[in-house]
Structure formats: C-alpha cells, structure tokens
Amino acid sequence: MTITYDASKLEYVKGEAGSIVINPSINFAINKEKDGIIRILFLDDTLLNEYISKDGVFANITFKVSGTSTVTISKATLETEA
Fold first, then answer.
1. pTM for this structure?
2. What is the DSSP string of 11-74?
3. DSSP H or E segment with residue 9
4. Most CB within 10 Å of its CB: which of 36, 52, 56, 71?
C-alpha cells in the first residue's frame, strides 16, 4: 500500500500495525520512502495461518500537522478470505 501526503503540511512521525495484524514483527512493515510517500507491506510469512481474517484497524499512522492537507491512499489492495 502506498500513502501519499503533502509533506509541506504533514510530517510523518510513526506507523504501527493495527489490531488485525497477526505477528506484526514478522508480517508487517512500514517505511517512509521519502517526504510525502509512505509504503506499507503485509505478508503472511507462514503462508498459512497468519493472514488477515477479520475487519478492523490495519495500521495506525501518526502525523504532525502543520496546516491542512489531504491524505491519498493509492494502489492499495487488501483481500481477506472468509
């Protein structure tokens, strides 16, 4: 998932896995590629039983606001199996 934002109005502080991510230290990564772009990756490292299986919070992202801005999520695909 790629999150783009106006870096002149928002400063990325941190990102953490949400409550629906199992074993986030292995299966979840978040990285500020550069000012204005954050990339998030989820991968069930077991390829078996640590997939996202319920609705809920996927990621918690904290910004410092220095104005007003719009955050755009682009090229994001999350699929779960019931």
1. 0.76
2. EEEEEEE-TT-SSHHHHEEEEEEETTEEEEEE--TTSSS-S--S-S--EEEEEEESS----EEE
3. none
4. 52
